[in-house]
Amino acid sequence: MTVMNENIFEVSGVWVSYGQIEVLRDINLYLKRGEIVALLGPNGAGKSTLMYSITGLVVPNKGRMTFEGRDIQGLSVEQIVKLGITLIPEGSLLFPSLKVKDNLYLGSYCLTGKERKKVLKECYDTVFQLFPILRDRSKQLAGTLSGGEQRMVALARGLMRKPRLLLLDEPSFGLAPLVVRELMETLTTLRAEHGLSLFLSEQNAMAALRIADRGYVMESGKIALEGTSGELCATDSIRSVYLGIVG
Predict the structure, then answer these.
(1) pLDDT tens, 127-170?
(2) Rounded to the nearest 5°, which phi and psi values hold at 221?
(3) Residue 23, SS3?
(4) Are 72 and 103 spatial neighbours (Cβ–Cβ below 8 Å)?
(5) I need a labelling partner for 201 at 20 to 30 A (CA). Which of 76, 169, 188, 214 fits?
(6) What angle do CA 148, 150, 151 make, to 5 degrees?
(7) Together in a domain, 32 and 43
(8) Low-confidence residues of the chain, pLDDT below 50?
(9) Closest among 37, 34, 43 to 11, alpha carbons compared
(10) pTM (2 decimals)?
(11) What is the end-to-end Cα distance of the chain in Å, rounded?
């Protein structure tokens, strides 16, 4: 088990506006190294915008974000990926007309130099061990896979750069309950066996809190609640609104 004794990532006082509309308002949160942290909230709460801000796809109006002690505010998407942060966006967003292995290869585009072949082999070995079915489907067109298999490819592609912080935006969206359970088990394996820190945005609070150490709840662009998974599960508003438990 990875020792969680230092912050790998911090967000301090981040605000994001689209024109006159404030989408994120004074966001403050952190992840310790080796943690799984859930970001909960309804559609429109600002979860995806926060994920995009972390990866440089959206530029905050103010605030500060640091990764492993380094300020990443203002860095390009490519620079942030090279530092060790990878985003798995909502949906699969694969190249459907390309083979599975080609989709995976594109996840390594930042790799350069003499170590490229060695790192690529290690990454392929890792993802095929995590998802054995993808080895069998490696020459199949990505667009012909099932929804669950496409999500596997999307996650595997994100691992091809050997990230240290993995961001997942609605990873369970549109998946059957059994597939969601298998996906969440894979995420716990990534933490336990590969030392990854994971930050996952989810509307499926039950699935997320089962594997998360802590969580934040967003409402209308702000952090409304935070706590351990146990504390959030015991909160009346979480139990009724997100878990469907009354009383």
Answers:
(1) 999 999 999 999 999 999 988 889 999 999 999 888 999 999 99
(2) 80, 5
(3) strand
(4) no
(5) 76
(6) 65
(7) yes
(8) 1-3, 246-247
(9) 37
(10) 0.89
(11) 35
